[in-house]
Amino acid sequence: MTYAFVLYTSFTFGYNAEQNGYLFAYVGLISIIGQGVLFGFFAKRFGESILAAIGCLLMVGSLFAVPFVGPATGGLAGLLIGCAFLAFGNALASPSLISMVSKVSHEHEQGKALGIMQSGASLARAIGPSIGGILLNNSVNAIDKFTIFRTFWTASGIMFVAFLAAVYFARFVKLKVWESAA
């Protein structure tokens, strides 16, 4: 969504590279606080499986809501709130998923499992811009409100599938932990 976000802010708010840079610095700060400060506390309190599902759900909601934000509907404050939810959701989901994969993998297969997971993430980063480019384009080769909604809502739908997978995986992890304790 990084490149689509820049196109969205450029089209909707008229932001340039510098202004988008400030937004990405803000997102980075939220991510640092989420992963570096709060994640450890939340992981001990709730567990990684719950955090993965919550993180995915936060991303679903923020990706769905962000295209509604514009200069007349929420303005910069609305954009910052949407970015915060998106960044915090990612800060919860990403390390949680990595932790869960390492926990359910046999000790001698952890490297392989984590490598496959990283390969999947790299593949998604390669395929995503291609799909997003198609979604952001209309019949006159331009971006409009409809293409922005379509792109963000598709991303929201993909994250909803990730949420469902996280819930399923959380049940699998809980069952595996319960069986190994018995």
Q: What does this entry look like structurally?
A:
The chain is an all-alpha fold. The protein has a single domain, classed as Up-down Bundle (Growth Hormone, Chain: A), CATH 1.20.1250. Helices cover 85% and strands 0% of the residues. Helix 2 runs antiparallel to helix 3 (48-65) and helix 3 packs antiparallel against helix 6. It is globular, with a radius of gyration of 18 Å. The protein starts with a helix and ends with a helix. The model has no long low-confidence stretch (mean pLDDT 89).
For this structure, what is the CATH homologous superfamily? Answer: MFS general substrate transporter like domains
**First-to-last CA distance:** 43 Å
User: What overall form do the CA principal axes indicate?
Assistant: globular
Overall mean confidence score, pLDDT: 89
CATH class membership: Mainly Alpha
Helix and strand content put the structural class at mainly alpha
Radius of gyration: 18 Å
Would you summarize the structure shown here?
The protein contains six helices and no strands. The protein is mainly α and 182 residues long. The protein has a single domain, classed as Growth Hormone, Chain: A, CATH 1.20.1250.
Spell out the key features of this protein.
single chain; 182 residues; mainly alpha; 6 helices
Topology:
Elements: H1 2-13, H2 17-46, H3 48-65, H4 75-104, H5 110-136, H6 145-181
